[in-house]
């Protein structure tokens, strides 16, 4: 197999080598035959490392065989090596670490400032810096003198970054830890805030049904869809959860549920606010996930996502690039990737999904954009293009 072969074609090749029908292969994965067919035809992308690994395991091959030689290994100096301190901090379970006599309690005010800084770093997509900040933040939650909301935010940031880096088990652990803290508060809003990263971690792990159930339940607990029954913070949390539930439904190939949930989320948001922009961006992502790439592109061309944080806008552009590639428009994908690279270079240099998208865009382009090639070189992506 050569470097230009799409991932879906490689999946089909190895499935046939293993003498499996699409239905047998789908049953092994817990997916539908339609899902397998869309993957093999390139309609549905395998751009999540967790799902790619599940497919590779079912085929009894190394994931690199599905990615091809054109897709480089993840640079250890930027991602893999730095996840270990976070994993180590999470394994130091707070319930088993009593405060010693000479240990200074964490100052909640100072911790809040540090956490706000870390959140701003995340929103600007400076993932290498956040990787350095999080272990100490996690260690300082162990004294249990901090308000629950601060501990939940620390776990949320950890889970969201781990999802970005493809470290799904770390994301799942951090999100579950945050939800455990929230459950002890009897505060529906804190529980909703904590449920959101758990939904994201479950989706990244390929647990789409569990992600759907978690987020839809939390959404309706915090803000039932009735007029004047909730606060702005509750409406924002509910809208974000409904968006995640919709994306999980898209992963599960359920279009009616996707659009109903996004419509419900839209009713909870201000037309000019970032929450509405997030819902609109999710429509593009959902359409692409469902295989309706032309609709995704049409929606993107009429959408303004400026109210969103830099990180969200750049991640959204990766989804848009995938839609362009699936629609056979390599120059459109290049434009989206270049825009993402200008906004947030770590989205392409640090994220496995970003580097994989760069490699695919260059591989599938008959005349690769020189600026995109330079961006790929800076990200450590090499290949025969």
Automatic annotation (TrEMBL):
Domain HTH cro/C1-type: 11-66
Alphabetized GO MF terms: DNA binding
Gene3D superfamilies referenced in this protein's UniProt entry, alphabetically: lambda repressor-like DNA-binding domains
Origin superkingdom: Bacteria
Pfam families: HTH_31
Name of the protein: Helix-turn-helix domain-containing protein
Source organism (scientific name): Micromonospora yangpuensis
Lineage of producing organism: Bacteria, Bacillati, Actinomycetota, Actinomycetes, Micromonosporales
């Amino acid at each position: 197999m050569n470097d230009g072969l799409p991932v879906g074609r490689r999946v089909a090749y190895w499935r046939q080598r293993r003498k499996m029908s699409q239905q047998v292969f789908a049953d092994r994965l817990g997916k539908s035959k339609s899902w397998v067919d869309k993957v093999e035809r390139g309609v549905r992308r395998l751009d999540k490392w967790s799902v790619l690994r599940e497919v590779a395991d079912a085929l009894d091959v190394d994931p690199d065989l599905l990615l091809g030689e054109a897709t480089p290994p993840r640079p250890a100096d930027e991602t893999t090596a730095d996840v270990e301190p976070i994993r180590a901090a999470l394994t130091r379970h707070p319930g088993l670490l009593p405060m010693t006599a000479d240990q200074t309690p964490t100052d909640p005010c100072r911790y809040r400032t540090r956490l706000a800084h870390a959140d701003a770093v995340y929103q600007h997509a400076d993932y290498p810096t956040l990787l350095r900040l999080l272990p100490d933040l996690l260690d300082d939650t162990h004294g249990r003198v901090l308000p629950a909301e601060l501990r939940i935010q620390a776990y949320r940031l950890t889970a969201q970054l781990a999802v970005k880096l493809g470290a799904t088990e770390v994301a799942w652990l951090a999100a579950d830890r945050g939800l455990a803290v929230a459950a002890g508060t009897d505060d529906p809003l804190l529980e909703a805030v904590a449920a959101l990263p758990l939904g994201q971690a479950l989706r990244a792990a390929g647990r789409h049904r569990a992600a759907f159930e978690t987020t839809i339940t939390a959404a309706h607990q915090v803000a039932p869809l009735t007029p004047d029954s909730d606060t702005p913070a509750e409406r924002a949390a509910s809208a974000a959860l409904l968006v995640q539930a919709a994306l999980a439904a898209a992963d599960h190939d359920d279009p009616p549920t996707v659009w109903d949930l996004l419509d419900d989320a839209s009713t909870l948001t201000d037309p000019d606010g970032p929450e509405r922009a997030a819902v609109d961006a999710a429509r593009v992502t959902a359409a692409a996930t469902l295989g309706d790439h032309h609709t995704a592109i049409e929606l993107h061309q009429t959408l303004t996502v400026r109210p969103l944080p830099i990180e969200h806008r750049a991640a959204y552009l990766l989804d848009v690039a995938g839609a362009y590639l699936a629609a056979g428009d390599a120059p459109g994908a290049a434009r989206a990737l270049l825009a993402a690279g200008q906004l947030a270079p770590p989205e392409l240099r640090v994220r496995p999904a970003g580097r994989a998208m760069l490699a695919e865009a260059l591989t599938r382009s008959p005349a690769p954009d020189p600026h995109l090639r330079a961006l790929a070189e800076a990200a450590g992506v090499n290949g025969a293009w």
